[in-house]
Design brief:
3 strands; Factor Xa Inhibitor; single chain; alpha+beta; about 15% strand; 3-stranded antiparallel sheet
Length: about 60
């Protein structure tokens, strides 16, 4: 059986931690930042965990992660 392919978009967006958690960055932090207040931009920093209802879908897109 041939190898499964990893989805390129998912490879760029998600990282798997050593404990198996799936990490992602926040949306709305790329452009048009002048009209967003500092509090919003500060809260969008860093990474967060993928919601548990989406974990199976992300795992399917990253078969070897």
């Amino acid at each position: 059986m041939p190898k499964m392919k990893t989805k390129s978009g998912a490879k760029k967006r998600f990282t798997i931690s050593a404990s198996g958690r799936i990490k992602r960055s926040h949306a709305y932090k790329r452009h048009i930042l002048t009209k967003k207040d500092s509090k919003t931009k500060r809260q969008l920093r860093g990474v967060t965990e993928v919601h548990h209802s989406d974990k199976a879908m992300v795992r399917a897109m990253l078969p070897y992660a």
